[in-house]
Structures are given as structure tokens and as C-alpha cells.
Amino acid sequence: MSNRFRTEIEEEQAEQEAIAEEAPKTGIPENWFTTFLSKGVISTETATGALPFILFLAALGMIYIGNMHMAENNIREIDKLSKEVKELSWDYKTTKADLAFKSTLNEVTKLADTLGLKEPVSPPQKIVVKEDAQ
Where is this region: Disordered (predicted)? Predict the structure, then answer.
């Protein structure tokens, strides 16, 4: 602190308070949005009155966006499953062709020869059982 009289200090504080009181208080800054709401077509009361409708529209927009995301995910999953079905179809067709090739007479005899079985030369005979013999 400096060596001054108390009255001088009080006078300076009073002057500073007077200057602070004279300065205009700015509550809301002046920009185009506040000007539009206060002096334009829409007043603050009508804006607050329309707030439920605006919130309803915002909710509908969010639902629409969520629905689009779900639809895109479903389309991606359908594409993935259709590719998998195509691959499984190709596997089925190749397996079926291999089975048809391996079940031919020549291939069966080749596989039987490896097991030690041979193709019979004589034709098969029919066994007839008489009922009297029992």
C-alpha cells in the first residue's frame, strides 16, 4: 500500500464504480440470429412455441437415419450370404461331379483291385429255395 489518505482511496473507488455503472450492460450479443429472433418474423415466444414440433422433426430425422443404417447393414448381409450360397453351390456341384465319376464301373473296379477284390467272370446265379425242404 502507498501512503495516501483514506479519503483519497475512497474517492478513487467511487470514481471507478461510477465508470463501471455508466458502461452499458450487454446481455445478448448482436448477431444475425438474435436480430432475426427479436426483430424479424419469428419472435422468441413463437420460437419456444414451435419447439415441440422442431423436436418432433428432429426425432423423425434420427429415426430415418437409423432406418437407413439398418437397411444398408441388411443389404451388406444379404450380399455376403448370397456369395456364400454361390460358393456352397459350386462346392456341391464339384462334389456331385466327383461322386458321379467315382461311381463309374471302371473307377469302382480300380478301387476294388486295391482292396484285393476282383470282378466276377461268371454271371450271377439265382438261388431258389423250395418250401418243401424246410
Answer: 1-23
The residue extents of the domains of the chain are 56-113
Cell of 75: 443389404
Closest listed residue to residue 50, CA positions, set 39, 62, 42, 61: 42
Confidence of residue 89 (pLDDT cuts 50, 70, 90): very high
Mean pLDDT of 90-115: 92
Work out the number of other CB atoms within 10 angstroms of the CB of residue 34. Answer: 13
Strands (E), 20-105: none
User: Which residues make Cβ contacts (< 8 Å) with residue 47, sequence separation at least 6?
Assistant: 37
Give pTM, 2 decimals: 0.49
